[in-house]
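Same chain as my last thread, 186 residues:
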Amino acid sequence: MSFPRRGSGGPKPVTPELLEKAALYYLERYASSAENLRRVLMRRVDRWSRIEGGDRKQGAGWVDALIRRYVDAKLVDDRAYAQALSSSLRRRGASSRKIKLKLRQKGVDADTADTALDETGGAGGEADLSAAIALARKRRLGPFGKTAGRKERRMREMAALARAGFGYDIVRKVIDAKNEGELQGA
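reply #2:
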């Protein structure tokens, strides 16, 4: 049995002012693409229309107008968001595939995602190798892990890097390296 929260009379009716407050509060806390902000605000509109019987189309119009205004004012910039997320994920050891997937999930179009990926080291090649090294170091795989039992762990470690989106050549190069120095020269 659930009890209603004190002072809770359900969701407040959605108005353009309430949507703007919600959008600004969200943008204060999180970086966002225009599409991701639209999804966040539309969840609020959907909940309002479902519970209060409000007009979803009217709410969607308010959300679209608000998003356009924020894009024009540069409060929401998909290109800057994609570049920041791409470089952050790259530093944490994400592959180009994983970065593209994450950007697509956040509502960034393919051209903007490709541009951001190119600006943060490019897709594949040297950038993916350095990201795979960073992930191996963080997760203590290959030459960064224990030397005892390394042959027995080889397939599991290769699978871990493959699941992270790295190609076979990069995975093999990182896992089969004898020591860190061999990877630094690569």
